[in-house]
Write a structure and sequence with these properties.
Layout: E1 10-12, E2 18-19, E3 23-32, E4 35-44, H1 50-61, E5 69-75, H2 88-99
Parallel strand pairs: 4-5
Antiparallel strand pairs: 1-3, 2-3, 3-4
């Protein structure tokens, strides 16, 4: 659930919110004075198509507002800690994120 009040200045960013068979995303933009911050959550179903996930999420990333910091949290259902770099799906996902300026922060 997302709770937004006038004091936080948060608004739902509809163009970044998607639900499909391969992913679910929800992004808000927090406005504090002249500062903006995009915060989002992404879920990739382990039963979804990883190639389609990458394609769909790449389209969402391309819509991120320029010059606004974006933080993405989520469950991508890739084991990045014990990754087998022969696994093409993990390589493609990692390339997608790194090429768009996102760096993993993994917690167990």
């Amino acid at each position: 659930a997302v709770v937004s009040t006038q004091s936080t200045g948060a608004t739902l960013n509809d163009k970044l919110c998607v639900t499909s068979a391969n992913l679910e995303t929800l992004y808000i933009t927090v406005n504090q004075g002249n500062q903006k911050l995009n915060v989002g959550v992404v879920y990739r179903s382990p039963n979804g198509d990883s190639i389609e996930f990458d394609r769909e999420y790449s389209q969402i990333i391309s819509k991120f507002p320029k010059n606004v910091k974006t933080i993405t949290l989520g469950d991508f259902n890739y084991n990045m800690l014990n990754s087998n770099y022969q696994n093409k799906a993990i390589q493609n996902f990692e390339n997608l994120m790194l090429s768009n300026g996102f760096f993993p922060l993994i917690s167990c």
